[in-house]
Specification:
Enolase-like, domain 1, four-stranded antiparallel β-sheet, 290 residues, alpha+beta, Uridine Diphospho-n-acetylenolpyruvylglucosamine Reductase, domain 2
Length: 290
């Protein structure tokens, strides 16, 4: 199928892109890499009167090494993130997640900003960013603001971005020597969206888990924190027993969807599996530094 007709803009500056979005509001849609949006348009599952392509906007593709964080421009491709030495040294879990998105063609074209703003509940970046307590920097008619990741994803395919705003940067904390993170997802085929994904972050203090975050994908309209699992681990040593106990509580309170890809019951069972695997990788990462 072909998409319904639309008017296409490729503004040469961020300010012009914001002006177009402000003028057309809900009738306009940003296109970044287009790897998620274009299939929806072609199948006519979505349609917009105006598409605003950011490919010509300068200075949106970069990876910066700041003092305590890394900043990633919204038009940075998955492949760039996958092979970035800055990401590998300071936030390797993001590089790992980038490397299992789709296939090489998708990773060459798709962007972190496009994926995050598309807000597919089964996508990889949102859960990883939520587990790292990342921040999203946006620009609009009212200037620049920073949104905490826990406030960014509000519903399926829906974010807290205003209609005239553009995501410009993703900011993630550098992982210190006492911290580690991991991401595990279960899929039908390599490169698919997650049936269930688990992103974990742990910061240790005196052999115990001082800070724990577990974010899940594929089980709710947005990525969600498994707070019961976090509570089970906090203040405890990271052992096989504590990992197993925490994993068993990861699905508490969830009502994941049932569809042609997986039933609710299967997803609930796999939450425990994905969480356990991610926590075990965190344990391995910490052990390898000793």
């Amino acid at each position: 199928m072909n998409p319904r007709s639309f008017e296409y803009f490729a503004p040469p500056s961020l300010n012009e892109a914001i002006d177009i979005l402000d003028q057309h509001r809900d009738e306009a849609k940003i296109i970044a890499g287009g790897q998620s949006l274009m299939p929806l348009l072609k199948m006519r599952l979505a349609s917009f009167q105006y598409l605003v392509d950011l490919r010509n906007v300068p200075d949106l593709s970069y990876i910066n090494d700041d003092e305590l964080e890394i900043g990633i421009g919204s038009m940075t491709t998955h492949r760039t993130i996958e092979f970035s030495p800055i990401v590998a040294a300071n936030c390797p879990v993001l590089a790992e997640a980038a490397g299992i998105i789709g296939d090489p063609l998708i990773r060459n074209r798709g962007t972190i900003g496009g994926s995050v703003c598309h807000a597919d509940p089964s996508a990889d970046y949102p859960a990883v960013i939520l587990s790292l307590d990342g921040k999203l920097v946006v620009r609009g008619k009212d200037g620049k603001r920073t949104i905490e990741s826990r406030d960014f994803f509000v519903d399926i395919f829906t974010t807290s971005l205003k209609t005239h705003e553009v995501l410009t940067e993703v900011r993630l904390p550098k992982l210190a020597a006492d911290s580690t993170a991991a991401y595990e997802k279960l899929t039908r085929r390599q490169g698919d969206f997650a049936l269930v994904g688990a992103a974990t972050f742990i910061r240790m203090r005196r052999q115990n888990c001082e800070e724990v975050r577990v974010a899940l994908s594929g089980v709710a309209p947005t990525p969600v924190r498994a707070e019961a699992a976090e509570h089970m681990l906090k203040g405890k040593a990271l052992t096989d027993t504590s990992i197993l106990n925490a994993s068993k509580h990861a699905a508490q309170g969830l009502r994941p969807p049932s569809n042609v890809h997986a039933s609710r019951e299967y997803r609930l069972a796999m939450v425990e599996v994905a969480t356990r695997r991610a926590l075990e990788r965190c344990k391995h990462n910490l052990r390898s530094r000793e």
